[in-house]
Amino acid sequence: MSSPKHPLDPLTASEIVQISSLLKDKSPNQKLHFKVISIAEPPKNLLRNFLIDERNGRSVPPLPRRATALYYLRGMSDMFLSTIDLDRNDVVDVKQMEGHFHGQADVNEILEIREACLKHPKVVEAIEKYKLPGHLKVACDTWPYGRDSDDHHPRYVQCYLFGKGKHPGSNHYDLPLPFSPILHMATKELIDIIRLPTGPSSELNHHAVYEPHPTKEYHHDLQAQPARTDLKPLLVHQPQGVSFSVDGHLIHWQKWRFRLGFNWREGMVLHDVTYDGRELFYRLSLSEMFVPYGDPRMPYSRKSVFDVGDIGAGVAANNLALGCDCLGAIKYFSFVIADSQGNPVEKPNAICMHEIDDGIGWKHTNTRTNDVSITRSRVLMLQTIITVGNYEYIFMWHLDQAAGLHYKIQATGILSTAPIDPGVTVPFGTNVNEGVMAPFHQHVFSLRIDPCIEGDNNTFIEEDSVPMPWDDSNPYGVGYITDKRVLSKSTASDSAPNRVHKIINTSSINKSSQKPVAYAIHSPAKQMLLAHPKSWHGRRAKYALHPFWVTAYHDTELFAAGDYTYQSHPDFTSDLGTWAARGDNTENKDIVVWHSICLTHNPRTEDYPVMPCDTMTVSLKPSGFFDQNPALDVPQSTQKDNGSTEIKDEALTAAVGGCTSNCGTRDSKL
Q1: Has residue 654 got a pLDDT over 70?
Q2: Is 407 helix (H, G, I), strand (E, B) or coil?
Q3: Taking Cα atoms as reference points, which of 142, 603, 211 lies closest to residue 420?
Q4: Where is the Copper amine oxidase N2-terminal domain (predicted)?
Q5: Where is average pLDDT lowest: 198-202, 509-513, 656-660?
Q6: pLDDT 10s digits, 97-123
Q7: What share of the chain is helix, strand, coil (3-state, %, to 5)?
């Protein structure tokens, strides 16, 4: 079977069939339950040389194209990891994983669990005792079981139940039920039904029954108030076409060149990022996302999920809709992943790419001549949106004309809710409707930055602005300087007021500043994980304790919380905390920088029944990398080119309009 041209290309549908068929043939008497089928990127020592030769137009001998597959024997807890050589059509290796490692949840499994849960006689009995009226059905949300002890459990799943109306868009989070089944993921056996606390502490109400309350709905069909009628269409046109070019997964835009990757876990990945022919980053990806809840009552105390490791950003990627998720002249990228049977599953329009206007790029008015020099900033946006249960996350890379990369994260969707007794409030949550409480929680993202700033011998530094002492060198007491600290060993690093973290290359000196070329990470200081470091949250997500980390590069170290996060135990997990503790030399070395970005979400009533987007931005910006503003050559902005229109006062009229396309269409949720 022929392989795709490039070693970084995502797997094709035929390759997924090839892989699953090979493994099924190896176990003819067993039924396999596939968790992962994914491309295995070549080792960096081979791939980087390949990419350099490719960029320079030199002949490039092909690299072996390999994949990995993680699977169970169906209905059992035995898990296996295999490596497949696609070029040779051969299974290179199969090893059985130790019992404390668990595979992530998959879509087929979740659907089976939901059905098994709601059909179980004891669950049906509990629902009947709750006395839901006939017009309400029960919806089941599945959550990773988390961890609250050293006990070794099989793969469990925690089910939270909700009542919902007949309309498919009914907001079932508005009626949380006060009991929660636990099921065995493999056998679908009911392990227990836990009563949920509905008061300020852990006391349980075993006799709680349904009490009606006015519902709060988000779906346009169900909202009480009419839709606004004063919006007129806002159109984005590029009459001469787009400014980017695409060759497979190789993208050129302005002076940018990079490869777009995609996999089940990280979703969107950027490879081999260069600007004007100069190396910047070898690989950029979302490494992990941890969502711990701050409700101290059992079983909410273990409520947490690694949305990347436990579920997968690629698995949860939406099919993006033209004119709704993406506005303008759009290039879509579609991919395939594998289902539990080893069949290819299309992920259409999982990433969209387009150009947007981003305000003023730079401007100066010469006050002596009144001559104006001005450019508008054009940005290339790559966007993917994932739905994980109740939440939507929007991930965007913005590449600007001044060589900056900006990683934007937006959170929206619906709050995960819990039942609360009438008249009761709790200090760790917000009541958003009668009998409905939204607990405080955090979202801690890990951005993995694999730099190649003018080569792979890089160093990570902290740079603080500090006042000079009031002495003879600073006689008026106004001077300040920057104080730099080299992180010469793998370690964590914290934020501080005005502190800037930089990746530098000491072997490449800027001829103007006479300092090493650098890229700086600009990110607002955020409160990190609020759970105690010795809690299960803190021990399982050590990356969430500090905003910055630096480690020496290793091919197998891609995920901040470890390879296997489902019910992970810190004693058996190799994670970012483990790697940083090695104390590897990170000065003038091939390093990886990890940035933990935390959104502490203490819900507002305005976040319900659906949450307006909350946005965070991390910027990777040149700092002494160029000799001058790299956007100087952006053409002067003119009205002739931009075709704007002026609205006279007398032309202003009442506006009418609305979305008439398929904007309301939603993907099915995990």
Answers
A1: no
A2: strand
A3: 211
A4: 6-70
A5: 656-660
A6: 999 999 999 999 999 999 999 999 999
A7: 15, 40, 45
116-130 pLDDT per residue, tens:
999 999 999 999 999
494-508 pLDDT, tens per residue?
Answer: 999 999 999 999 999
Question: Three-state DSSP class for 108?
Answer: helix
Q: Rounded to whole angstroms, how far apart are CA atoms 426 and 238?
A: 52
- Whether residue 259 contacts residue 246, with contact meaning beta carbons closer than 8 Å, is answered with no
As given in the structure block, the two tokens for residue 181 are 């089944």
Beta bridge partners of 456: none
Q: Pairing mode, if any, of strands 304-306 and 331-338?
A: unpaired
Has 608 been annotated as catalytic?
A: no
Return the bridge partners of 552, or none. 591
Average pLDDT for the chain: 94
**Could you read off the pLDDT of 434-482 as tens digits, one per residue?**
999 999 999 999 999 999 999 999 999 999 999 999 999 999 999 999 9
Residue of 174, 272, 295, 307 marked active site: 307
pTM of the model: 0.95
State the greatest distance between any 2 C-alpha atoms of the chain, in Å, as a whole number.
Answer: 86
pLDDT (0 to 100) of residue 153? 84
Q: Which amino acid, residue 358? A: D
Closest CA to 304 of 7, 611, 15, 538: 538
Q: Tell me how far apart the alpha carbons of residues 529 and 210 are, in angstroms, rounded to a whole number.
A: 36
The set of residues, in sequence order, having a beta carbon less than 8 Å from that of 8 and lying 6+ positions away, is: 39, 41, 47, 249, 259, 261, 271, 272
Confidence of residue 648 (pLDDT cuts 50, 70, 90): confident
What share of the chain in percent tops pLDDT 70? 97
- Closest by CA to 99, choosing from 116, 83, 121, 76, is 76
Distance of CA 396 to the CA centre of its chain: 9
Q: Is 665 exposed, middle or buried (0-12, 13-18, 19+ CB in 10 A)?
A: exposed
Crossing angle for the helix pair 107-119 and 121-130, nearest 10 degrees?
60
Distance of CA 197 to the CA centre of its chain: 31
Alpha carbon distance 207, 60 (integer Å) = 71
Q: What residues are paired with 288 via a beta bridge?
A: 446
The secondary structure of residue 227, as a DSSP letter, is P
Distance CA 201, CA 203 (A): 6
Range in 63-72, 563-572, 658-667 the model is least confident about = 658-667
| 586: phi then psi, degrees, rounded to nearest 5 | -125, 15
- Bridge pairing between strands 137-144 and 611-622: unpaired
| Beta pairing partners, 395 | 384, 409
71, 72, 145, 391: the catalytic one is 391
Tokens 């190799």 map to which residue?
A: 574
Rounded-to-integer distance, Cα 242 and Cα 261, Å = 21
Structure tokens at 491: 């370690």
Tokens for 426, please give them. 């709790």
Of 213, 216, 1, 196, the closest CA to residue 87 belongs to: 1
As a whole number, mean pLDDT of residues 549-562 equals: 98
Which tokens belong to 554?
């290793």
Count CB-CB contacts under 10 A for residue 345: 17
130 is catalytic: no
Q: Name the β-bridge partners of 399.
A: 380, 405
Phi-psi region of 359 (alpha: psi -120 to 50; beta: other; left: phi over 0): left
Asked if residue 659 lies in contact with residue 232, where contact means CB atoms within 8 angstroms, the answer is: no
Q: What is the pLDDT of residue 653?
A: 57
Q: Which residue has the tokens 């709060």?
A: 216
